[in-house]
Specification:
Order of helices and strands: EHEHEHEHEHEHEE
Largest sheet: 8 strands, mixed
Helix content: 25-40%
Mean pLDDT: 95
Amino acid sequence: MTRPLHPTALVTGANRGIGHAIAAGLIARGCRVTLGARDPEEGQRAAAALGARFARIDLQDPESYFAAVTEAGGFDILVNNAGILGHHSLLSPESEFDTAMEVMVQAPLDLIRLNAPHWRETGWGRIVNLSSGWGAHAEGLEGPGAYGVAKAALNALTRALPRDLPEGVKINACCPGWVATAMGGPEAPLSPEEGADTPVWLALLPDDGPTGGFFRSRQPIPW
């Protein structure tokens, strides 16, 4: 089936930064976007500014995203953008390992599972996993604390899932680059809009586009 005229999209962690820019980019291209965020006040304000819908989604609270997907009846496009960055050693009792894996691996997989019935029915879907070069084995897995390990696991999901997804659904991961956000810091050379370019491109890939890949600046990069 061809792409819907106005695809529905869910972008997690979209109240600011790259997620907000992705939501804006998808809206500009005719998508009906639901902005997911933990904080209702911030999320509703950001959604209103964009002309998007808002859903309270806390990736550590499965009931919140189950409710969002169930209420919507599924989304054509899923952008797993939300993430956390910790700096504690993996050997430290204060390591954010469990939280990092929950937010950046388990919840994205849960969201994919929840959307699968919708994709089976429509025959078209796109999944974009926001990853990082810090989670790439080819770049030394340099992410601090549990961040790089979680992103590497998200990459592994991206490579493995094409064999299980319904026909017509594409899944890809991308590294947006070093972006000036709350996570990236003010010295980063890229704007959120520049960081959002590749995710938006992947979210609207044509039927002959790639799946199961890892991209930066719209070009494939090694895992």
